[in-house]
Amino acid sequence: MDTKLALIQGDITRVDADAIVNAANSSLLGGGGVDGAIHRAAGPELLAECRELRGCAPGQAKLTKGYRLPARHVIHTVGPVWRGGGQGEAATLARCYQSALAIVEARGFRSVAFPSISTGVYRFPIDRASAIALRELHAGLERLPFLEKVTVVLFSQADLETYVRALAALTSSRGAGNV
Ligand code: AR6
After folding, report:
1. Structure confidence by residue, pLDDT tens digits, 7-40
2. Ligand 1, residues 121, 127, 154, 161: which to mutate, most atoms within 8 A of Cβ?
3. Cβ-contact 75, 104 below 8 angstroms
4. How much is the mean pLDDT over the chain?
5. pTM value?
6. Which residue of 28, 33, 74, 80 pairs with 92 in a disulfide if CB–CB is 3.0 to 4.6 A?
7. Would you please indicate which residues are annotated as catalytic (active-site) residues?
8. How far is the CA of 24 from the centre of ligand 1 (A)?
9. pLDDT of residue 34
10. What integer pLDDT is reported at residue 22 of this predicted model?
């Protein structure tokens, strides 16, 4: 199993990493959930930089500084709103992780933390979202040897347990020791 992949329960705004990922909306001008928490913790300079970015399409990602956060940068991505699963939601969610990891690669970040994108206000079922997230993060770790630590920060104990089960399923589907 990847010793570089950690699942923890907590508040992502407290995580010290080269970058934390924000589950934003297309405006990039803040909102509720993890987005609101990140903007509150980072301070008003984050919103000022986000204004210059002129939004972000679902599945894409954009980079800002971290300002008052312990993390040096924020990677803002926009997940899909769940509309029943027939609108390409799974592919869009996978692209969020891929786009964020492309920024990690371009900048040579060695540590990054993700929230559970789309599984709050956007209502993506977390059992499906966790499988997609962990598949993409595992692929990123295989591809990017300089990446030392990927942390998924789950807000609730129940969400953490869902991710732990999804990771066990991913590990067993690939055979012990091969993930
Ligand atoms: N640390 C880690 N995870 C958190 C935190 C935190 N501080 N706060 C919430 N979560 P959501 P979405 C979890 O709704 O579904 C915003 O208004 C939360 O429990 O934040 O992608 C944006 O502006 C859930 O598991 O993001 C958009 O409009 C996960 O983060 C919209 O919500 C994602 O929930 C995006 O919706």
Report:
1. 999 999 999 999 999 999 999 999 999 999 999 9
2. 121
3. yes
4. 96
5. 0.97
6. 80
7. 35
8. 8
9. 98
10. 99
Q: What pLDDT does 173 receive?
A: 86
- H/E stretch holding 134 reads helix 126-143
Residue 14 structure tokens: 């407290």
**Cα–Cα dist 126/76, whole Å:** 20
CA-proximal residue: ligand 1, atom 12 (nearest): 118
Residue 64 pairs in a beta bridge with 74
What is the 8-class DSSP label of residue 117? T
CB of 22 closer than 6 angstroms to any ligand 1 atom: no
What amino acid occupies position 85? Answer: G
Q: Is the CB of 81 under 6 A from ligand 1?
A: no
**Residue 178 C-alpha to ligand 1 middle, in angstroms?**
32
140 lines ligand 1 (CB under 6 A): no
CA dist 9 and 151 (Å) reads 10
Q: Tell whether ligand 1 has an atom less than 6 A from the beta carbon of residue 24.
A: yes
The domain covering 5-173 belongs, at the CATH homologous superfamily level, to Leucine Aminopeptidase, subunit E, domain 1 (3.40.220.10)
